[in-house]
Amino acid sequence: MNPNLEKLQAYPFEKLKRLFADLTPNAAFSPISLGLGEPKHATPQLIKDALIANLNGLANYPSTNGLESLRVAISRWLANRYTIPALDPSTQILPVNGSREALFSLAQAVIDTSKQGDITPIVMCPNPFYQIYEGAAYLAGAQPYFANANPAKNFAPDFSQVPESIWQRTQLLYVCSPGNPTGAVLTLEDWKELFALADRYDFIIAADECYSEIYFGETPPLGSLSAANALGREGYPRLITLSSLSKRSNVPGMRSGFVAGDANIIKQFLLYRTYHGGAMSPSIQAASIAAWNDEQHVAENRALYLKKFSQVTPVLQEVLDVTLPDAAFYLWAGVDKHLNISDTEFARGLYRDYNVTVLPGSFLAREAHGINPGRNRIRMALVAEVDECMEAAQRIVAYVKGLQSQLTT
Question: Start and end of every Aminotransferase class I/classII large domain (predicted)?
Answer without folding.
Answer: 32-394
